[in-house]
Amino acid sequence: MTKAAAAEQVVTARLRSGRTWQEIADTVGAPVVWTTAALLGNHPMSAEQASSACKLLGLGDDVAEALRLQPYRVRDEAVLSDPTIYRFTEALSVYGPALKELIHEEFGDGIMSAINFQVDIARRPHPDGDRVVVTFDGKFLDYRW
Amino acid sequence: MTKAAAAEQVVTARLRSGRTWQEIADTVGAPVVWTTAALLGNHPMSAEQASSACKLLGLGDDVAEALRLQPYRVRDEAVLSDPTIYRFTEALSVYGPALKELIHEEFGDGIMSAINFQVDIARRPHPDGDRVVVTFDGKFLDYRW
Amino acid sequence: MTKAAAAEQVVTARLRSGRTWQEIADTVGAPVVWTTAALLGNHPMSAEQASSACKLLGLGDDVAEALRLQPYRVRDEAVLSDPTIYRFTEALSVYGPALKELIHEEFGDGIMSAINFQVDIARRPHPDGDRVVVTFDGKFLDYRW
Amino acid sequence: MTKAAAAEQVVTARLRSGRTWQEIADTVGAPVVWTTAALLGNHPMSAEQASSACKLLGLGDDVAEALRLQPYRVRDEAVLSDPTIYRFTEALSVYGPALKELIHEEFGDGIMSAINFQVDIARRPHPDGDRVVVTFDGKFLDYRW
Amino acid sequence: MTKAAAAEQVVTARLRSGRTWQEIADTVGAPVVWTTAALLGNHPMSAEQASSACKLLGLGDDVAEALRLQPYRVRDEAVLSDPTIYRFTEALSVYGPALKELIHEEFGDGIMSAINFQVDIARRPHPDGDRVVVTFDGKFLDYRW
Amino acid sequence: MTKAAAAEQVVTARLRSGRTWQEIADTVGAPVVWTTAALLGNHPMSAEQASSACKLLGLGDDVAEALRLQPYRVRDEAVLSDPTIYRFTEALSVYGPALKELIHEEFGDGIMSAINFQVDIARRPHPDGDRVVVTFDGKFLDYRW
Amino acid sequence: MTKAAAAEQVVTARLRSGRTWQEIADTVGAPVVWTTAALLGNHPMSAEQASSACKLLGLGDDVAEALRLQPYRVRDEAVLSDPTIYRFTEALSVYGPALKELIHEEFGDGIMSAINFQVDIARRPHPDGDRVVVTFDGKFLDYRW
Amino acid sequence: MTKAAAAEQVVTARLRSGRTWQEIADTVGAPVVWTTAALLGNHPMSAEQASSACKLLGLGDDVAEALRLQPYRVRDEAVLSDPTIYRFTEALSVYGPALKELIHEEFGDGIMSAINFQVDIARRPHPDGDRVVVTFDGKFLDYRW
Amino acid sequence: MTKAAAAEQVVTARLRSGRTWQEIADTVGAPVVWTTAALLGNHPMSAEQASSACKLLGLGDDVAEALRLQPYRVRDEAVLSDPTIYRFTEALSVYGPALKELIHEEFGDGIMSAINFQVDIARRPHPDGDRVVVTFDGKFLDYRW
Amino acid sequence: MTKAAAAEQVVTARLRSGRTWQEIADTVGAPVVWTTAALLGNHPMSAEQASSACKLLGLGDDVAEALRLQPYRVRDEAVLSDPTIYRFTEALSVYGPALKELIHEEFGDGIMSAINFQVDIARRPHPDGDRVVVTFDGKFLDYRW
Lengths: 145, 145, 145, 145, 145, 145, 145, 145, 145, 145
Description:
10 copies of one chain form a homodecamer. By secondary structure, the first copy, chain A, is α+β, with helices and mostly antiparallel strands. Chain A has 2 domains: 3-68, 434 Repressor (Amino-terminal Domain) (Orthogonal Bundle); 77-142, Cyanate Lyase, Chain: A, domain 2 (2-Layer Sandwich), CATH 3.30.1160.10. Chain A has helices spanning 3-17, 21-28, 32-39, 47-57, 61-68, 77-80, 83-107; strands spanning 110-124, 131-142. Chain A has a two-stranded antiparallel ribbon. The longest helix of chain A is centred in the middle third of the chain and has 25 residues, at 83-107. The first copy, chain A, is globular. The N and C termini of chain A lie far apart (42 Å). Chain H binds chain J through residues 2, 65, 68-69, 72-76, 114-115, and chain J through 8, 11-12, 15, 77-79, 81-83.
């Protein structure tokens, strides 16, 4: 079973079971964004993690095995064009060059790692309508020869 | 003068003057990420903002006029391929589907606005190496007919 | 079952049953453009909506379940190249920059939301041939930090 | 002078003169969306139209001549990626197939013309925030051999 | 059954039956280019047309049903790269701008409709080798507001 | 001078002079579609042809020299997206596979040459609106080893 | 059976049978490059050719039927990126413009036909390592109106 | 001066001087295809070669210097779409897989080098029309670890 | 069985068996990078190599046969976008032009062969974190006519 | 002055001066691959580095200033298609998946950094022809939350 097929089964099983991603993450014992990404196929899970998630959702061993496989984390323009995801890319078109300037000014020539990296999401209440707050937090890496 | 030509003059003048983006933002009286994005051509400035920035950097009226123009905020694959900016896009390939699931679970069907939106950047000290922390903060918009 | 497979079943069942989209929308209790978009896979339906539509068209529970799933609303160039849809895109090439200028002049820097948004279609009789009238109606969102 | 160069001069002259697009359209004696599209290079103007617009904005005969030239109305992905314009395209990804179904159901096999066509824009006041209303109005053309 | 699958069955059945496209068109009672295009999936057939074609070729009701479905007429670069089709596109690269100039000079600003449109093909005997003559015949539509 | 620059001068000079393409073709002594294509840069002219055209339009020797140069006849997606030209391409998406089938049935495996080829354009009066009739006429070439 | 599926069966059957392409071509009674191209799906075979090839390779009638079908000869960038094929394309990037100049100088404005065309391959012994010699041989076609 | 600008000067000077590529090659003392490719910017010339070519064509030292520069031999889709060059690419779509099979059968797993490589062009008289014969001749390189 | 299907079986069987790529390479009797590339479908194996690998991993004869087939080594942008592979491509964007200059300076005009070529990977211990060291080692080929 | 314009001046000045990249690197006091990449525009230089390089090559202060600017390190497909650079990309198509497997097996889930990274090039004498040896050496980064 491919990781994509396993992800489809996870999504359907979650809908049927009524479990939240947070409940699954608590069972797996890992942060909720990481767990969701892993169950959708973008991180390999340990045997224990895969097994506990599949048990909770009533999925078989073949799904668990697929969740353990090393993923190809490919760039998929169709996925990136979904409006909920696209807004992040659009924000990068508007603010990417500014972030680049400010990273270089504060840290020097280098990048924010996307590997030594974590991302969180929170709801921020606001009188004009609640807000989605997503935090990208990665280690600075300088161009070091 | 185009906004792109104005942005080039801003970058060079800043290098020569030794001013930081924060100093320019303080002069303009606006947040530093917004100000940097505007000076690089992605937001229109008011006449006062453009004028104060150009005065600080020793730039002419033609630059100030260009900074006031309404921009086209285009998607530029070359810009997005710069490693410092690319890491954000790569993170979206890995975590975008998870963020989408979690936004829908928490808020329902909809998006984080990239218009009613602000972004901040900070340095987070860490014993293994300081970290770049970028916060995307946008109003939730639900698919509402 | 994927939403794409469910959409194919909907289209075929509608052809066989002779139902109009309006009849289906009346059964579902939602606007006709929204209902059609949802049945073609671009909006998630509630359990009641999915169930009533499937009952009317004689479709199974697996179709109803698929209609409830959260969609990926992807950009599909093949779909956009169909002449009936392409004419809208062509009109944007001709009038998009003008609409942008007029939105900015009337409302300031910002956009018409495509989320807090509705679209209607009507026939307008005309002696030279009836006309298709499509109205895009979205909340104005200003670039607000 | 190319039509693109003429359009840049129009935009800058309008900013300096403080004229609205509506005022220019009134001077030209044509609908405001059409006039704006023409001045941005997407429709050829008559000698009288070009001349009256240039006179109002203080532009030279070379600009007027360029405004009279027959345009190439090209598809420009960079322009279409501007957020204010992009939302229309995104709406087509979501609602295009539904519009296609409803056009075929109501009119038969065919298209909404983008040539025998007009587009209008209006502000619709709304307690939750005013709305941008854009109306596409084109003659129905059936596939007729 | 999809229209693409139906088209494959039509092509194979025609090869086996030895029928010409003209014979099929005569049976269907429609022009040969239109009929061929419809059987290959680019026009919807009426129930009678689909039925008579399938009867002649010995194809089942599922094929007939698929032939009645409304098509997506997509642009498929692979199909357009076939040499027999590509030569038409190449001719447009060479003569397209000239045709545009001559249409505008003769008819004014507008297009040849591809909807109110017919196309014919003929063999023209010639001592240096017979010639393929393809005639595109569409109603002129002017840009009319 | 490049052929593109020469073409721009031709187009402007023609507008100023009020000459029709047919008049220019008569002066050059060649068919009007060929002449227009050549003046727009897609065919090399003989020294006499280039010279007579430039004399009629009041253009210099550098233009004449450029018109004599061997062209690169490139595929330019922007040009092909102009609506007046695009309709031909759209027709190929709809009718290309049918034309391919009918060419093969009538002539065997091969193509209509786009080199040993001529194209004509005519106006066909019609009570419902006059029609643009474009004839592609090329020698059949069979796949012959 | 599609021509692609037939080609896969041919390739596997050839591997198992140990036959060379030359032996198959001798059986078919056609040049080896033509025969190989036809068996891989890029030329239609006569009933006799298809039958004799399938008999030699122990393949069924469905394969023979597929080999007779008229092919779509599409441009497939994946295939063209295979290193053994890519080197030819790379050579065209380096020498294509020179070949164009020399064809025009020797023959006038026109092309080497790829339809009235044959290609051969040979091994040329050389002390520094044997060489692959591929000869493209096509009829010159001039741009003739 | 860039190599592209130098190439433009070479082409124009050759037209004015009436020299053939063969005459230039004889002066340079190198094969005609190589010399033409070098003068069009795809090979670096030695100081003597550049100097002798420029002397013959009456071009300046800046052209000679540009001809000596190491080129970027880039893939340019516009150039490859010129019909005279495109036919070679089309032939690769049709015969590339067959050539790959035959190279592997005769030589084993590997490629024809495009570096240790030469290409020649000749006219082959033929009663049905003379033929363009282009020979690609490259050293076989096997995948050797 | 295709080579891609065989590769999937190899990856899963390896995970289940717990074998390392080095152990498989030792069994096959070939370098580990070569063996891994071959098992993933990018090199043809000899009958002995394929057989010994399949025996070790408990895979069938159909897998072994697929491993012997000559591969198409295609460029697959999705694979190249995986972060672990992408970093190599990114390094080429930064250092590719420098490597080109230094190859030309040291060796003359030519390339590093990717056919007469081997690649090795090693771990280099380092106090700041161990390093991945990948060595590309290919024969220099000069542009030699 | 842009960094691209500065790079052009560096390349020409180096040709005229006869300096090697190693001599320039010794003057700058940095590794030769790094220095070459920086002078071609892909790394920012310190004021001292830029100044010493420009002094050696006889270039002006404007070049030195451009060399100090922070670069955009963009992906440029034209540059990557140059044969000398392309061979590296081709090797990644063949060996990239194998390198990914071996990195994951040896180091776990993660990447070779392209930022904390150095690259070296050397000539390795060989009786069959000397070899280009390029070593990529980057810190391993594991996916660490």
